[in-house]
Amino acid sequence: MKLHLLRYFAVLAEELHFGRAAERLAITQPPLSSGIKALEDELGVKLFERTSKHVSLTPAGTAYLVEVRVVLDRVDRAGDLARAVAAGLRGRLEIGFTGSMVYRDMPAIVRAFGERAPGIEVNLREMSSGEQIDALLHRQLHAGFLNADTVPDHLASLPLAPDHFVCCLPEDHAMAQQACVDLRALAGETFVMFSREVAPANHDNVIALFYRAGIHPHTRHAARQWLTVVALVSMRIGVALVPASMAQAAVKGVRFVPIAGLQHPTVGVLAWHEDAVTPALRTFLDMASVGTG
């Protein structure tokens, strides 16, 4: 059954006049008449009683109209959905993030995106940077907020807003109330480190800070998340260098103190597979580029 015949029927059922129905359909009366006859022949029932002066629905036509309106409404909604998906306004996105990204750009970008494209469902999945990269390469994520400064071939990335490292000290530490801390003064401390296995870039950036300060501190207690690092410091397990944004976690028992003479940025990018950009992801990336610009 051809869809245009259902539209012919629905319009004629509303107008009950071939001339007005043909005008609404932007066709002439002969194809409308032949179309209605073809529909009746296919169904094997009479849908209209018609004379030279009068057109009315038969009982079968009245019942058929109810179902035809449902079909046409679903077809219209399907078309609207297809156009919305093609325009990047409907769909679903799987977005990865590391725990520390909760305190950086990610929440603001996701909220702004939700306001701009409420028809797109965003599913956030907490994963390590390494897990995200693997999932992106295998196209199991659409995008990921991860701790890295470079990404593998086939992945593209957008740098996040700048952040930098600070010293995280127990609140009763002798240097916790200072305006800034010289790393060399902490050379004898035990440092809580980020696990290199989970995010090499996080670990290597902290080591780079020690190298620039000319010290070789005692390091141990490798953690898998920055929040865990801060929590261990609050328990007086050691001291740490962490992103300044971690102060937003409001962990009790710690102080975040600037590092004297050093402004070392922390790494962070939004990454995606360059060959797997859907319309919904393009809309998300457009929003992210505004939020991080």
What's the topology here?
Layout: H1 3-15, H2 18-25, H3 29-43, E1 48-50, E2 55-57, H4 59-86, E3 91-97, H5 106-116, E4 120-126, H6 129-137, E5 143-146, E6 155-159, E7 165-170, E8 190-194, H7 200-213, E9 218-223, H8 226-234, E10 240-243, E11 254-257, E12 269-273, H9 279-292
Structural overview:
There is one protein chain. By secondary structure, the chain is of the alpha/beta class. Helix content is 41%, strand content 20%. A five-stranded mixed β-sheet has the order 4-3-5-12-6, with helices on both faces. Helix 5 links the parallel strand 3 and strand 4.
Strand neighbour order, sheet with most strands: 4-3-5-12-6
User: Which stretches are low in confidence, meaning pLDDT under 50 for 5 or more residues running?
Assistant: none
Order of helices and strands: HHHEEHEHEHEEEEHEHEEEH
Mean pLDDT: 89
What's the tally of helices? 9
* CA gyration radius, whole angstroms: 32 Å
Global outline = rod-shaped
End-to-end gap: 53 Å
Offer a few descriptive terms:
41% helix, 3-stranded antiparallel beta sheet, alpha/beta, 5-stranded mixed beta sheet, 293 residues
